[in-house]
UniProtKB/TrEMBL annotation:
Protein name: Glycosyltransferase family 9 protein
Species this chain originates from: Acetobacter fallax
Lineage start: Bacteria, Pseudomonadati, Pseudomonadota, Alphaproteobacteria, Acetobacterales
UniProt entry keywords in alphabetical sequence: Glycosyltransferase, Transferase
Pfam family, one: Glyco_transf_9
InterPro entries the UniProt entry points to: Glyco_trans_9, LPS_LOS_Heptosyltrfase
Coiled coil feature spans: none
Matches recorded under SUPFAM superfamilies: UDP-Glycosyltransferase/glycogen phosphorylase (SSF53756)
Amino acid sequence: MRILFITATRLGDAVISTGLLEHLRHTCPEARFTIACGPVAAGLFQRMPGLERVIVMTKRRYDLHWFDLWRHCVLTRWDLVIDLRGSATSLFLWTRRRRIMRGGRRPGSRLAHVAQLFSLSPSPMPTVWTSPDDTARARATLGTLPLIALGPTANWSGKVWPADRFVALWNALSKTRPDIRLAVFYGPGQTEKHMAAPLLAIPGAIDAGGRFTLAETAAMLELCSLFVGNDSGLMHLAAAAGTPTLGLFGPSKASEYAPGGRRAEWIAAPGPEGEAPIAGLKTETVIEHARIMLPGAATETRQ
């Protein structure tokens, strides 16, 4: 059985789609999967069992990247084509069955939208796939446990909680749990590293960003006791890894993009959803929620 799975360009959306993929992998154990996605998300699927190949869709003018995808896939007789991008390309491929998620903004969570393609309820939770080598590198990079992971970056400035507040959060949590260490996560590129710089300057902080594969990053997140970060692909990856995750929301909509995971929660700045500046999210509020979620700190007295 051969399945073509067309998923997102952005990392967060791609992570959200992994729950459906894992569901299909278990219900169709003989299937071979071809994943089509953007370059940022491609590494997410490299360790997936049953993977045949990943087709990286690099955006081109006049939407020619969709023609490229068609050329890669048109000679294959598919058993199932799943198109989470709602493209016309999937209509011009030979397949026994197809499921297309229509475009346009709809109320409700993206996780539920994906699950509705197969009438799944509850929605299957996102997952990560890692290897023993990824775990070994994660342990070598992070060293001694326990660890708190902080993710101070995002793909646009409106979603970025001020860095000095992340520093204040770390100072408070390190007093609650003096045995815990800090790992700072961020994406590739100098812009992301610049956003993370105030936390990287904290004595003893572990640089867990920029240079790792997504599988290695997921393996590092699996080792952390808590992740607190902005609404971002890393937030979704942490939740999918099963790490207790606290997502911070401002002008992005938590009703649509709340982290999906067994131990994932979120808090938002006060004000109308989709409009509230993230700077309105108070440090004390985040500290209180993080303390409750931090293993071994739930009964600690507030400082």
